[in-house]
Design a protein that fits this description.
- This protein is mainly alpha-helical and 52 residues long.
- Helix content is 67%, strand content 0%.
- It has three helices and no strands.
- The chain starts with 6 loop residues before the first helix and ends with a helix.
């Protein structure tokens, strides 16, 4: 078997290593715990406004 990480494994490693991504994931988890749910449209609008 090949010991090289898969492409998906490499992507996961890069994302897990990025402190900004880690912070966004933690915030998303906290939002979900507090019952905050965002629609796709709301997320797109936040991206357009530079909030995400």
């Amino acid at each position: 078997m090949d010991d090289k990480p898969s492409a998906l494994g490499r992507v996961i490693h890069v994302l897990d290593s990025d402190p900004d991504v880690h912070q966004m994931i933690e915030q998303s988890e906290e939002d979900l715990k507090q019952g905050k749910i965002y629609t796709t449209g709301e997320i797109i609008e936040q991206i357009k406004q530079g909030k995400l």
